[in-house]
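Hi V.,

You were right to ask for the full record rather than a summary. Here it is.
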Amino acid sequence: MQKSMRRYAALFVLPALTCFFIAFLVPMISGVILSFFKFSTVLDGTFVGWQNYKLAFINNEFATSLWFNVRFTLVSVVTINIGAFALAMLLTRGLKGTNAFRTIFFMPNLIGGIVLGWIWQLIINGFLLPKGVTIVTDPKYGFWGLVVLMNWQNIGYMMVIYIAAIQNIPVELIEAARIDGAGNKTMLTSVILPSIAPSLTICLFLTITSGFRLFDQNLALTAGDPGKQTEMLALNIYNTFYRRTGFEGVGQAKAVIFTLLVALIALTQLAISRSREEEA
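Predicted structure:
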């Protein structure tokens, strides 16, 4: 049986490898190549070397979007994970109606980003309009509006991951800690958190990458207004590529920088989290 599986393993893996090659590897390599060309279509490119990368930083738009994105991601990662963990702790205590609450908290994750942005734009503007302002009147409204939207959409999803991790903690470990006189604080810091460290790593990875890749919610909620001060990296790349004639190559260069940046941050976070898991 094992010999047969080894013989046909490549055949079974072939469809997945084909999809990976066509849908990911080829576009990624093509994108890197095109970032060194000035083009309007992929067939009429003119090689310009590093000029597109220089043009990407010729004004402050890209740097402003990067700084806005970093601040947004830091705040949203902290708030999402704290909120999700708090809900997970609350919903693993055997309270009545726990399953219904889990479903309710998870449901916002199923709503599309564009629809979610429109919904929260109506809600937030409903609070701001009586004061004579809107979400795009001041960048701080857009910033905190995006944070609220991100939390509302993702807390339920991260909560499910934390619930699964908490429920997998051995009962014997918890009972032993209680017998030894561990209080709630000691139980949390010395038993629960070390036990769910792998899930914490996963949730941090997901929230960091989703924070940097946010696009449709940003487009629907603020569209980068006022004056592109709430424009994140993905939206900045989109506007450069599709809304500035002759800047397709610059947009592609920004996309390459963006990909490398997100990959570097995500891999660094994974390495740090895993080293702490091993220490624990």
